[in-house]
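Entry 14. Structure prediction run on the chain below.
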Amino acid sequence: MTTTRTARPSPLVLSPRDWAMLITLSVLWGGSFFFAKIALAEIPPLTLVALRVGIAAAALHVLLFARGMGSPLLDRRFPALVVLGIFNNVIPFSLLFWAQQSIPSGLASILNATTPIFTMVLATAFTADDKATPLKIGGIALGFTGVVVMLGTGLSGAGSGSAILPQIACLGAACSYGVSAMIARRMQAPPLTIASGQLTGSTLLMIPLALVVEVPWTLAMPSPAVIAAVLALALASSAFGYLLYFAILRSAGATNASLVTYLVPVSAILLGTIFLGERLGLADYAGMVLIIGGIALAQGRLRRPRRTAGA
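Output returned:
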């Protein structure tokens, strides 16, 4: 089956609708760090992960039913979707929520922005069609220099060396996201099936884990603000966020969809600064510039576009 390209602009050109979706997604995903920070004041990390994936999975199942689609539980690809959920939800959400108990939400979002760098490293190592180029190597090196700048102070966001382990946990989450990208690129299924399947698998894993480790029934009833944050985290940042991301992928392509990586830390930092009173250090901002610059370099976005004859 072939498709025509005449009806679409250059893949590097986004329509106003694409930009609107991209900015909305960056606010939703940047907001996930903000909502998590609020919820973690009263809910422990694993329980929060279980609530996030469980509520999001339930919402997507309602959407599946409304569209007359079958449950991912009955899909032959469900075991693979569970594996995807482990690397795209269970591991990174757990690490990020644990880390955000100790470091600002904006700092966690900056470190999470290294996801494309880990994806490039993994793609170079384990795929035959996405090998290293000088630009990629330079971008990866620049991005990891940013990480070293942030970790090297030992003071980022917390004022003591105790911030090192939470920052490493954020990097572990980004690496896990990179693994999930390698898995997802091989999956052939409707976007709604992938999103609901991975969240359903994650829910089946996280509920017993949270019950055993954190015995959440012994916790006090969360405040209305925390309940609202959990619902926003699950429904807006997760359920709707995944659907919006897949819509951008279909409309603008994977390269343009990856632009959200540049915007998420900005949203998270603004929300944390305005509403939570968070303040990041100079090394954090310097690291963010180096990380985002490295991603842009590796993706070829810093190259000057070639001029065509007669331009």
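The two ends are 34 Å apart (CA to CA).
Filed with the rest of this week's runs.
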